[in-house]
Amino acid sequence: MAAEDQNGGGRSALIFLGTGCSSAVPNAMCLIQPSNPCDVCPQALSTPPDQNPNYRCNTSLLIDYCPSDGKHSYILIDVGKTFREQVIRWFTRYKIPRIDSIILTHEHADAVLGLDDIRAVQPYSPTNDIDPTPIYLTQYAMESIAEKFSYLVKKKIEEGKELRRVAQLDWRIIEENCETSFIASGLQFIPLPVMHGEDYVCLGFLFGERCRIAYISDVSRFPASTEHVISKDGAGQLDLLILDTLYKTGSHNVHLCLPQTLEAVKRICPKQALLIGMTHQFDHHKDNKFLTEWSEKEGIPVQLAHDGLRIPIDL
Questions:
Q1: Which range marks the domain in which residue 58 is found?
Q2: pTM of the model
Q3: Is Ribonucleoprotein included in the keywords of this UniProt record (predicted)?
Q4: pLDDT value at residue 4
């Protein structure tokens, strides 16, 4: 797998701000009912998170995009419940000064409930007199977020009401299909609609010209048209597939679990894959040993990602 790099330099990079499920790891129930704890959750609190790959915040990816002009742009995919914690841990470690664009996969809590905290990484203005951060999302997600965060969407202040400092966001609607790409901070993205349960469509995203990367955080099934776009036997082999895996065994109605994830990796056949969205069932070191053996057998390098992982890459 690509090695972690602590230095910014002049290259683009992927920074995994979170690699855990919606409830994150450690799981609260394992800590408040310690008579029957799992092995992973107590261990996840035993060392600092930057030294502990079993401590997992909500899934989120930061793309540090540095084209040939050397100017960095910072593109965030998803802003979940643990966003503030991710900023304190990883923005400070990697010297991320701002967010230039935001992309949302869907409107569930683990993808959007940190939106209010975007103001913490925007320039300070008590009157909200700043350039809003572009945020790309589907019409369905926009309608849901307008109900959850009406104060972030409605700009007109009613007479007699106080002006309050909130995150300033420029909402931009994107399509739910592989044919209509969009540009965020100079980087092209192709939406990858996938099923997140049979009654709900979530988006993954394909990006990168020098390296083709697909990020798919919440999926239970791939429509044939989406799988074609990202598969070796379809539109072309991916350099990196970042893919959902919720539990180690069994199946789930709205997520892939490890058996289905590995079958999908074999079908799509990327050059390498990193897995995200894990529950406390996964022990990073032990399960990566299993995945190393699987990778040698199948010829596709696969590993669990971890919070804080930074991968230099040419986009």
A1: 13-312
A2: 0.94
A3: no
A4: 47
